[in-house]
Structures are given as C-alpha cells and as structure tokens.
Write a structure and sequence with these properties.
It contains 21 helices and 26 strands. It is α+β, with helices and mostly antiparallel strands and 710 residues long. The longest helix has 69 residues. The two termini are 86 Å apart. 17% of the residues are buried.
Length: 710
C-alpha cells in the first residue's frame, strides 16, 4: 500500500468511526490512569522511605516524610546531605560521601551502605540506604530506598554489652569453679595420703559430705546412686531413700542415658573431670538450674571405681541476673526518655556514668565525651560550681551554665548538683537545656523595648507639633512687626539727623546716635533673618516629625537634603567640633526616593559623628559627589572620633545593638537607616578603625535623565 493510499485509508477510518477511535483512546487513558494509581499506591505504601534524586531530591513517598519527621515540601529541592550531620561517623564529610555514592549509582553500580541522618526535630538516626539507577522519560535518576535502623543498632549494642557482661560473669565463675576444683583435688590427694587411717578419714569425709552446702552424689560406673547428701535431696526435693539406688538419669532426665554420648562416659573412659550446667523441674514443679561438676574415683592403678558429682544451685543467682537485667533495662529506658542529661562523677569531676541522651544537649555521645574530656569541668567549664560549697550544703540547684556543643551551637543549661554515693561516684549532676526559654525571654524583652521606643517616638511627634505651634505664634508676630519698626526708624531718622546737625551727638537707648544710625538698620536685618531662620527650623522639625509618605517617587537633590539636615543639626554640629567642613559636589544627578526618609538617615549619621567626637579640635567632614562609572550618587561623613571596634563593626545595623546604651542609645537608628537605604536601592558602608575615626558612605542609584545639581 502506498503512502497516499494509507493516508486515504486513515482518513476514511477517522471519518467513518470517530466515536470508536475516541472511545478507544479514552479506554487507553483509563488503563494508564489505573496503572498510574496502582504504581502510586505501591510507591506510597512501601514500608521503606523512597527518594528520587536528580541533582536534588525531586520526589519522595510518605514513609520518607515519616522517617525524617517533615512534610514533602521540606524535602523536595534539597540534597540528601541536608538531612545529615556535617560529618559521618567515619569522619567523612556527608556532602562529599553522598555525592560520590550518587555518582557511582548513576554509573549503574548499586550502592548499599549505612548512613547517619538528622531528622527535622533534631534527632540523629541510623539508616540503611540502597541507591540504584533508573530511567524516567529517557533521563537517568537515582532511586534511593532507606529505612530507619536506629532501634536495631541500639539493640545490637545492648546485646553486645549484655553478652560481654555474661562472658565476664561466666569467666569469673569458671575461674571460681576451677579454683574450687583444684581445692577438691587437693582434698582427694589429702584423703589418699591418710588412707591408713581410713576410719578417721571416713568420718571426716562423711561430715564434709553431709554438711556441704552443695549437693553431692556418688555413682558407680553404671550410673547408680550409691550415696547422696542432704543438700542434694533438698535440691531435687526427694526423699533420701528414693535417691539411693536410682539411676542418675532417673533423677535428672537425660536423653543420652547410658549411651556413649553421655557426658559422664568421658570420665568412665579416661577423663578425670567434666563440668556443665543443668536445668530441671523439681518435685514441686519449680524450674531450677545448677552447675554440675563430675570427677572420677580411681584406685591406685587408675581404674575408675565410681563418679562423684557436685551440684551447685544457681537458681537464686540466675534470678538475680534476670532481675539485674530487668532493672538495668528499666533505668536505661527511663534515662533515655527524659530530656535531662545525667552525669555521675567523682569529687574531682572524673566520669563514672554518663546517660545515653547526652548527645541531645552536648552533641557528643557517651564515648566521645569520655575520650575527649577528662572531667565534667573540661566539658562545661572550671567555674561550673564550687566543690567546697557542695561539701558544706550537699546540694546546689538552678545553676545557669553557657556551653558550646560539638557543632559550635550555643546552649544555656540549668544544672542541679547533689552529693551521692553510687558505685565509686560521689556527685550526681543533671543538666536541662533552657536555650529556647532564654531566647523567648530575649525576644519578649526586645519586643517590649520596641513598644517603649515606639511610644517615645509618638510622644516626641506630638511634643514637636505642639512646641512648633507655640514657637510659630510669637515668631510670626516678630516677622510682621519688624518691617513696621524698620519703616518707623527710617521715618524718624531724618528728624534725628537734623537734631544731630543742630545740637551735636546725643544718646538714644544708651547708645550715641552717631553709632545707632549705622547699627540699628543692621539690627533690624539681623532680627528678621534670625526670625526667618527660626521659622525654617520649626518647619523642618515639623516635617521631620510628621508621619512621612511611604511613596518613593520624589525627585531628590542630595545637596538639598544635606542642607536641610545640617540646618536642623547646626547647633549640635558647632558644639561638637570647631572644624566642620561641608563640600557640596557639582553636576550631581537627581534620583528618586523619599525626601523625609533620606533626611532621617543623614541626620542619624551626623548625630553619630557628633557623639563619636570627644574633643572640639577634631574634625567632621561632609561631602557629596557622583560616580559616573557606576551611576551612583554618594554622600560621605567622616569623623576623627573614637571609631568602632572590629568585633562590633558587623553588628552596627542590627536592631537594638548599641555601644551607647548607658547614655541613652537605643540601637535603632542605624538599623532603621539601613532599612531605608535598602528601600531606595542604595547602600550604607562603614570604614572604621578604633581610635582613628569612622567614614560612613551612602550611595544611591542616579537617574539617567539629564537632571543634575548645579
């Protein structure tokens, strides 16, 4: 079929049966949606956490969110090492290890490894991770499956600790039994040496046999009991007549009985002794446990005549071990479930016990603390508490301590210290982390200070408006009356001049008229200028205190703003220094902004310069200019004051940071100024050396419309 024929055929089909084609397409879409729902259900229902990794985490299932204690949006877009400590337990950097494992998986090599994670609530967990390469829409991704194995790791650690303890107990008990066995052998040798005095030896042996605290059996070579002591009858809770003559395996059931597999057969065929543990059910139904030691009775030629078995009752000991394990587990769970970290130390601060949850506060686990710190004082500081004070009162409560954890984070702890006598420890110390509470208190204090400062500013605005009104009324009277008085002077001047010519010089207002006729006009001019200056200052003060507009669309002349600020601070500037230099630049372009806010910034910087100077012989230099290369309008204020310490310089624009709190500083001026500069797209830069002065540079983006300051 040709291409045209196929196209005609398709055309006919699509024309003749469009409903059927559409129905088939809908059916395919429905099947795909069901498959998608099935795969999504499988994806979300897996018991392991699933992550899809490109160069970042692009998808995850619900179990991954559950493991990390966060929402899906807290995972997508991050890298796996963002949910891990900086370093893994082997000392490697988490980011580098994760990147290497992902790259190796993308090469087609499946990666399986254990990984240390940190959940969003700050809890460190152990996970088992598998990375494999998958292809989605012809793009390679890494599919990560992981599960929380923290509990498994903890149980393995606990199991190892218990095994170690049991091995130690068994080792000690074995040594004790060996010593006991050696002692018994010496006793047998002693009985052989005194064989000639058989009767005396028999009586002595009978006394030992009957009064021994351990159960003792004497068997012949056929395992028949030929003798037993009272302790054995009490152990098995049987009468003596039932014990004597019975087979040993009738008293203690044994599946081997008299076969070659019986443990006693080793003695019969030549071994001198053997020992083993045995559990049995007594006549009363109690389960008992005992340690059995069997030795051969031989004649002088070495022939086995019988077997002596010693039964050491371990039932009470076993119960004690079980109770000890239960008690230890109870205390371990209790300590792990509380937020406090507990230490038991000697008087010198040496560690005897460290609770398992110390990592929540100090960042170090128990082994790291023991390895890196010799005492509690190395961990939290040598002025932590006074040993002499503790000796006198036995308990010290609510000591606040500041510490830096393993990850360089600051914590505030409250400690309670008490004298104790536990093992070799003498001092019990409990730490509780109150960092969040302290931070909340600081935030509350800052908010209170902000409210107080806001109240002050409101009161200041009301006061400024009232004072300005009261000043303007008498000042307006002066401005209105000065021209009238001036005209009256000029009208009277011709008469007074004639009087001077006719009668000579005379006094007027205690001044000679010849002097007054020249100086009075200057006085009128000076009073009028001063009154107008008062009017301008009051108006600028009202403008500065008035709630300004938040719109930043005014055309700003930097020289005009500087001139208004200097006019307001003229008195303070001239009181602070005898060397005030102001240089207004020429050809400076205008820029857009808010006149009042920029004036506020300049006033703040000038006030800081005045307060930094403690000697009138030191200068303040103010200048404006334009940087055509970067299209920036700039204003610089330099002073020869005290300067700023290097440690303080990065914090000068932080809210409520001030070095002048004792003299009324609030720490808000530069913080507000910095925010205003950012609103204008500008920048505030500080160059300072302690003792050598400070230069503050304000820069604003200039308008490129040809307007410039002449």
């Amino acid at each position: 079929m040709t291409k045209n024929a196929r196209e005609d055929h398709l055309t006919v089909n699509s024309t003749d049966h469009p409903e059927r084609i559409i129905a088939e397409q809908h059916q395919k879409i429905s099947l795909l949606e069901k498959k998608l729902e099935k795969y999504e259900a499988i994806f979300q229902g897996l018991s392991d956490g699933i992550l899809l990794i490109d160069d970042k985490l692009t998808d995850c299932n619900k179990e991954a969110c559950q493991i990390w204690r966060c929402e899906k949006e807290d995972i997508i877009g991050f890298f796996p090492s963002d949910f891990a400590p900086l370093l893994q337990p082997d000392g490697g950097k988490s980011y580098e290890i994760a990147q290497a494992k992902i790259n190796e998986a993308l090469r087609g090599n499946i990666q399986k490894f254990e990984w240390k994670d940190i959940r969003r609530d700050g809890i460190a967990i152990d996970t088992e991770v598998t990375l494999s390469k998958i292809d989605v829409d012809e793009k390679n991704y890494v599919l990560a499956t992981f599960r929380d194995i923290t509990d498994i790791k903890i149980k393995e650690s606990e199991k190892q600790a218990l095994l170690h303890m049991m091995e130690k107990i068994i080792e000690d008990r074995t040594k004790s039994l060996q010593e006991y066995n050696a002692s018994l052998n010496e006793e047998i040798d002693h009985r052989r040496r005194i064989e000639r005095n058989l009767e005396h030896a028999y009586l002595e042996l009978k006394e030992i046999f009957d009064t021994s605290g351990d159960g003792i059996l004497v068997l012949d070579t056929d395992r028949n009991v030929i003798r037993a002591n009272r302790a054995f009858a009490e152990l098995v809770e049987m009468k003596m007549d039932k014990v004597i003559g019975a087979k040993c395996f009738d008293i203690f059931p044994c599946r081997h009985k008299c076969t070659d597999h019986c443990i006693l057969q080793e003695i019969v065929v030549g071994s001198n002794k053997t020992d083993f543990e045995k559990e049995f059910i007594s006549e009363s139904g109690d389960r008992k446990s005992c340690l059995v030691k069997a030795s051969a009775l031989r004649n002088s030629s070495g022939e086995v005549l019988g077997i002596v078995k010693n039964y050491k009752d371990l039932t009470s000991y076993k119960r004690w071990v079980d109770m000890l394990q239960e008690s230890e587990e109870f205390h371990r769970i209790t300590l792990a479930s509380i937020s406090d970290s507990i230490f038991l130390t000697t008087d010198e601060g040496k560690f005897i016990f460290i609770s398992c949850n110390v990592g929540n506060i100090f960042g170090y686990d128990e082994d790291e603390i023991r390895h890196e710190f010799e005492s509690i004082f190395d961990l939290v500081g040598y002025d932590f508490y006074s040993s002499h004070e503790l000796q006198s009162i036995n308990e010290i409560n609510n000591i606040e301590v500041e510490i830096t954890d393993k990850f360089k984070s600051k914590h505030v702890l409250i400690a309670n210290i008490k004298k104790a006598s536990i093992r070799s420890g003498t001092t019990l110390i409990a730490f509780r982390d109150i960092t969040e509470r302290k931070n909340a208190e600081k935030r509350a204090k800052i908010e209170y200070e902000q409210l107080v400062q806001a109240g002050k500013m409101v009161s200041l605005g009301i006061l400024v408006s009232g004072v300005a009104h009261e000043i303007n009324n008498p000042n307006n009277a002066i401005i209105l009356n000065i021209p009238l008085l001036s005209r009256m002077w000029y009208d009277a001047k011709s008469i007074l001049d004639q009087y001077l010519e006719d009668n000579g010089d005379f006094l007027i207002g205690n001044l000679r008229y010849s002097f007054a006729r020249e100086s009075v006009p200057e006085l009128f001019t000076g009073v009028m200028a001063s009154s107008k200056r008062i009017k301008h200052i009051v108006q600028d003060l009202k403008n500065y205190a008035r709630q300004g507009s938040s719109v930043l669309n005014e055309i700003i002349d930097i020289n005009g703003v500087l001139n208004a600020a200097v006019l307001l601070l003229d008195n303070q500037l001239r009181k602070s220094t005898d060397f005030l230099e102001i240089t207004y630049g020429y050809g400076i372009p205008h820029f857009q902004g808010n006149f009042q806010k920029i004036e506020q910034v300049i006033i703040n910087v000038l006030q800081n310069a005045c307060e930094a100077i403690d000697d009138r012989t030191k200068s303040i230099r103010i200048s404006t200019g334009f940087d055509p290369e970067n299209m920036l309008v700039w204003l610089k204020v330099s002073d020869e004051g005290q300067g700023i310490r290097c440690d303080d310089l990065p914090h000068v624009t932080d809210p409520f940071f001030t070095t002048k709190r004792t003299c009324g500083g609030t720490g808000l001026g530069l913080s507000i100024s910095s925010r205003i500069m950012r609103e204008h797209g500008g920048d505030m830069a500080f160059d300072s050396r302690q003792g050598a002065g400070t230069t503050v540079t304000l820069t604003f983006p200039a308008q490129n419309n040809g307007d410039a300051t002449s």
